[in-house]
Each structure stands twice: as structure tokens, then as C-alpha cells.
Amino acid sequence: MSSEGHIQLVDHLFRHEAGKMVAVLAARFGLAHLQLAEDAVQDAFVQAGATWRFGQLPADPAAWLMRTAANRAIDLLRREGRWQRIQAGLSDSDTEAPPAHYHGQELADAQLQMIFACCHPALKPEDGIALTLKTVSGFSAAEIARALMSSEAALQKRLARARSFLREEGIRLEIPAGPALRTRLDRVYTVLYLLFNEGYHSTKADEPIRRDLCGEAMRCCKLLVEHPAVRQPAAFALLALMCFHAARFDARLTSDNELILLAGQDRTLWDQELIAVGRQYLNEASRGTELSRYHLEAAIAAEHCAAPRFNDTCWPRLLVLYDHLAAMCPTPAVRLARAVVLAETGDIAGAIGYVLATEGIETLLRTQYLFPAILGDLYKRLSETVKARALLEQACALTPSPAERHLLQAKLETLRN
């Protein structure tokens, strides 16, 4: 393998394995050593980058990284004089799995444990969510900032604030059990939702859809709906939403990894079995009186899946669902999605006005590519070419995704022609 190939392999494994490795090490050595676990994992990847390029590629690179990170964590603990105090509680088999003695009110999955532990109620919600995404997923600051519609500078402040608060207040990140699990559920749902979204809208040039992230989010969500202590309607609704979106994976990309918008997708490629599973989960979510944002978003996704063709979509019904969602959760992203549906009902001018009335729209247009991208497309549909071109060019400059950029450039080309 070439030197460039080794670099690509290390980068691929970091994206796919780093979060799991941190979770396993934290489960093994204790959540009090979370920062040490992150450092050990980082050092393992640095060592891989330095040694694999000289032809020393192991037979199982992922297992090599896990062993190296575990050994590095032990070295760091010994250096700090903490290894002897925790060694008695460990065995050689602990390296690749958390202890298996959890009872029915606890969580036995290392990664899900980490999510619950990092979603500490003492942290501000936005700080805790940012810390969780950084710790569990291995996301870069740029990826987390994009997921939270924030700037990298603001995101770094959130992470620093969260770590500082935990340290100064002497708060230990511990795995909750029983009733304590439920107090963290809302934040856990948000983390899994953002984890899936980052996979669905990946910025990686070689992976416009990161199925591993989506699959991990779905796996963790499935564990929630199967766990007696946290089996809630919102979890079923969130899993249904993920199923509906994942069912469209094969229709979202061309053979050249270019994105295909909903209107142009071959719906015969949609996974009807997964759509049926999503409907089952949505039916389960309807038990009880709770109505969450995930219920509404899953109902919206189900409506799209029910239409055999794009032109058969019932836009008025979708608009009613978005009205409820915007009333419950009036975020800029929800408002933007509602505007798209409003335009499909024929009120394009109203959709533009609705987007422009979003709080902080000037900043959003300068920093979040999706806002100028959609607004530019709306102006394009009204034949306001000058405004459309300026906004689409702005979106092109902002998006970190090569696949999204290519899509925007194609729209710009139609304007030039």
C-alpha cells in the first residue's frame, strides 16, 4: 500500500472507530479518566500514521489500534501513579468490551453508556450535547459546529466550558441506572438524532452518506426501545424516522457518488422492507399521550415514503405537520424545511418571506450554506436570476461537502444557460 493509501486508511479508521475506542477505554478504566482515554486513542492513531507508512500494516488494523490505545492508556496511568489503584478491578479480557455484569436497569453497551454519561444534567444542554458528540463520535469541531448550526469558535468555547465546569465542580461522569436514565433521555435523543444527520449529510468527499454513523445511531436507538427502563414513545418515533430516511440511501446517490434530490430519486430503489419496519415503530410510538418532535418528523418522513411519485406527494398534509412542528420546535432548520413545503404548495413568495423572517437570518445566510442554497433555489423558481445566482454562489462557497457543491454548481449552470 502506498504512503497516501496508509494516510487514507488511518483517516478512514479514525472516522469509523475513534468514538467506539474512547467508549471502550472509558468503560474499562472509568469515566473519571475520559480525557486520558481520548488522549490514548489520539496517540494510537498518531503511531499508526507514523509506522504503517513503512509497510508495517497489521492484519487487523482496527484491533491493532484498540490494543495500542489500551496500552497507551495504561502507560499514561502509570506515569500519573493511578494504575495501581484501578488495576485490581481489571482483567486482560477488559480491553475490548465493558464489564458484562450489568443488571436490567443498567446499560451494557459501552457507546450508549458514554452517551448517557456525557449527557449530564448539570451541564447546559448545548454544552453537554457538544461534549457528547466530541467524545462519542470523534467528530471534528467543524462537524459538530455544523450539526449544531454554530461557528467553530463558539463550539470550541462550549467544549472548553463543559470540561471546565465538570472539573471545577468536581462532577464525575458516571453511568446512570434505573430512574436516573430517564432524566437524560431528551439529550440522548438529540445526540442520536444529530449523529444520524451527520451520517445522512456527510461532508466527506469519499462518503456523501456515512452509513456507519447512521447505522450506529440506529443501533443505539434500537437498544433504547428494547430496554425496559427507557422504553419510551419518543424513542420509537426517532427510530421510525431513521428507518424512513435510511430506506432511501440507495436512491440518494449516483454511481459516481453524486447526490440525487428527492424529486429525482428512483423510488423503486427505496427499501420497502425498512419502510415497513419504520411504520411498525411509528405505530408503537403512538401508544400513550406523548407527542414529541420525533413523532412529527417521523410522520413527515412517512408521508414522503407513502407517495409513489414525487408529484403524488400530499403537500397540504405535510404543511399541516410542519405547522405543528414549527409551533413545537421553532428552530431555523425547521422553519427552512417548512418553507420548502410551503413553496411546493404553490406559495413560493410566501416561502421566501417566511425564510427571511427567521430570527438571525443574516448570520445564517453568511454561515450556514443550506439557507442561501434553498433561498437561492426559491428565487430561481421565481425567475429572479440575479438574486438566485448570488445566493447559490454564496452557498457553494460555504458548503464543506463536495457532493453538495457539485449539486449547487449544476443549478448555477442552468442559470447561466
UniProtKB/TrEMBL annotation:
Domain of life per record: Bacteria
Domain DUF6596 stretches: 184-285
Residue span(s) of domain RNA polymerase sigma-70 region: 21-82
InterPro entries, sorted: DUF6596, RNA_pol_sigma70_r2, RNA_pol_sigma70_r4_t2, RNA_pol_sigma_r2, RNA_pol_sigma_r3/r4-like, WH-like_DNA-bd_sf
Protein's name in the database: RNA polymerase sigma factor
Residue stretches making up the RNA polymerase sigma factor 70 region 4 type domain: 115-166
